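idk why but the lab printer keeps eating my pages so im just putting this in chat instead. protein + iron/sulfur cluster:
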Amino acid sequence: MVTISLDGREVQVAEGTKLVDAAAAVGVAIPTLCYLKGLNCIGSCRVCLVEVEGEGLVASCNTAVREGMVVRTATPAVAAARRANLQAIMDDHRAVCATCVRQDTCALRALSSTFNLEDSSQPLPEKGAWDEDFPLQRDSSKCIKCMRCVAICRDVQHCGVWDFTGVGPFMKVTVRDGLPISQAGCALCGQCITHCPTGALTARDDVSLIMEAILDPEVMTVVQVAPAVRTAWGEGVGLSHDEATPGRLASALHALGFDKVFDTDFAADLTIMEEGSEFVEFMASDKPRPMFTSCCPGWVRFAKLHYSDVVCQLSSAKSPHQMLGAVVKNTLADEAQAAGKRLFCVSIMPCVAKKYECDVPELATVPAGEAPQLAAETAPDVDAVLTVRELDRLLRTVGVQCAALPEVDFDNPLGTSTGAATIFGRTGGVMEAALRSAAYLITGENPDFSTCDTTDATPEVPWVSKTLTIGDATVRIAIASGLENTAQLLDALERGEAEFDFVEIMACPGGCVGGGGQPIHFNREMGAQRADILNRLDNAAPLRYSHENPDIHQLYETWLEQPLSHTAHEWLHTHQED
Ligand code: HC1
Ligand code: SF4
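predcted complex ->
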């Protein structure tokens, strides 16, 4: 341990601790913009300046404690220097706060009022050219060159999409090698968006598409919400985690005017039936190990762009929201037609890559005579995807008083789900849900929950692994979240240093609870808090095994026969060659 004096207090912290963290440990919050603990400690914005006796002003994010250091964080000289640095940043930022989607979560805006900054007297930078159809949007005129996107994309997500050119005042953050963003290897995880301190990086806004559909009397709008949405949607509309229940979320979606409000959790149970059955067949085959989960589109896109050799080992099961879209388009077509309407499916997702996934051609249901209800030869299962941030903005725009809403059930028959489905939204959850049902399929008995427990999976470790005995079978599993962790796991598999039968990958650290479409916080504990909510919902659920969902049985009886049937393949599995 090292002892320093901080604002006259004696503070003891571990060797190597940065001054900014030593101060935080005793409740002294030093303002920062470019800093990301353990990731981006470059001292470039110089907003975190503090005074060190004998040294003058230093950036507290890249200065480690030394024995006997005397540090002052709150003096007029420190404040004046921080303000001057902030003003220089503001002078080069197109501060159009009134219309910026990040106005409530912009770190620069929050500091600008604290430090009483002035509007820039210089010509505002121009917004650079960008592909407006791409789900990830960038406005370079709002970039403050903090390099957080560069660090997160390179070091946590293994994609290295962002780079910079020039130095000093001429420095610019760019897409690597001057490539168009669509060709730069972006997995669309959205982590650069949630780690950007300003409005420079955002997700494509699709709210107007949904408003048009809701207002069109000839459209039957169907909405579904992902597992991880229920943990976070209240954050952007002023509800506590306790107030923001799934029942109030269903109510809020009705208040927005959606005709049917379904739950992606239903389809997560369906995914387990299909993927669990696929896994049981896979275990009896001599196919190359492992089989990878395929429900995370950021991971699937990453595999296609960066590790194409493993694409053939992905489960062919579509992701739950695509499955639900296919079920809706096939089973509600007659009802919509009788009402003289066309179906429009909307998914509310904690994810940016889902905006891309719903446009992937090989995920569309191909009727080929099997599904004559569909008017078109091929039609998207899901017509539009909104992030949780867009949902929250829509609720605020429409003026839905969420706190006053009653709690209601999701509509049926596509609204019933089990606890197994709920935990899809955190790292390890898909694996755990699949094992609960795969064990039943193999042994005819439900396994003990502790056998399948994956709550030790965290974003911090490259992967967690276990070897389970299920009946006569030995099953080696691994779980990774975050794409750098994923890359390390794939490299170990490639080198023969690890061997598994079934691997779950989630692109975002911690899984969908930390998704790139979730409300933005600079509190890195938030992902774990949201995961706890999912675990609590699972523990409290009356049904906790996907194969016990009665409405899933009904769906098979009425439409699909059994898992992996011909119709199940038509509706619920990808039709890709690669
Ligand atoms: Fe996910 Fe999924 S768990 S991918 O992480 O398989 O986004 O929540 O919706 O579809 O169910 C995201 C979450 C989500 C799908 C499910
Ligand atoms: Fe990198 Fe993910 Fe951002 Fe794409 S979305 S640039 S992969 S951090």
